[in-house]
Amino acid sequence: MWSCSRRRLLSLAAALPAVSACGFAPIYGEGAPARRLQGAFDMQLVPNPFGFALNERLLQRLGAASAPRYRLAVTSQITVSERAIREDNTISRFSLDATADYVVTPLGGGPAATSGQVRSITAYSAIGSPLATRAAEADARRRLAVTLADQIVTRLAATAGNWDR
């Protein structure tokens, strides 16, 4: 057991120079462009429960605007689809398909620094109780908001070197 784990560790250690030689660098490493994004955004709030959850996650990941240089505006759309229907014609499963468009603009004005769209899908079951179904839908929407916010932050971090000067 120990020798197998030790061999894996040694092979991983031997592979590290090859990974760094191919241009790999930690996204939030010392001097990395993504590291400068912490506290750099004045976020435009979305005034609905889904938008609140999205903004909350963006704030967790990007930090409070300590020295904002950019405005981050996000708009979102959710489409609800019926996915499973019982024999008595009641719906037992719903699918939520969400997209979020984001635009980063410099606070001093000028054209957009970057923009894009992210998408995610989730589902929830409609159980016998209407209250439980509403709670399941609210949880699904919150999960979507977190996923979309994480995708936005990942894209911003991965491309920061191209637009954050």
Characteristic terms for this protein:
single chain, 165 residues, alpha+beta, Double Stranded RNA Binding Domain, four-stranded mixed β-sheet, 3 helices, 28% strand, flat
Summary of the model, kept short:
The chain has helices at residues 2-21, 49-62, 130-163; strands spanning 41-43, 70-85, 91-106, 114-125.
CATH topology: Double Stranded RNA Binding Domain
Gyration radius over CA: 21 Å
Mean pLDDT: 85
Beta strand count: 4
Tell me roughly what share of residues is in helical segments. 40-55%
Question: What does the model show?
Answer:
The protein has a four-stranded mixed sheet with strand order 1-2-3-4, with helices on one face. The longest helix is centred in the C-terminal third of the chain and has 34 residues, at 130-163. The model has no long low-confidence stretch (mean pLDDT 85). Strand 3 (91-106) and strand 4 form a beta hairpin. The radius of gyration is 21 Å and the shape is flat. It is built from three helices and four strands. The N and C termini lie far apart (50 Å). With 165 residues, it is an alpha+beta fold. It has a single domain, classed as Double Stranded RNA Binding Domain (2-Layer Sandwich). The chain has helices at 2-21, 49-62, 130-163; strands at 41-43, 70-85, 91-106, 114-125.
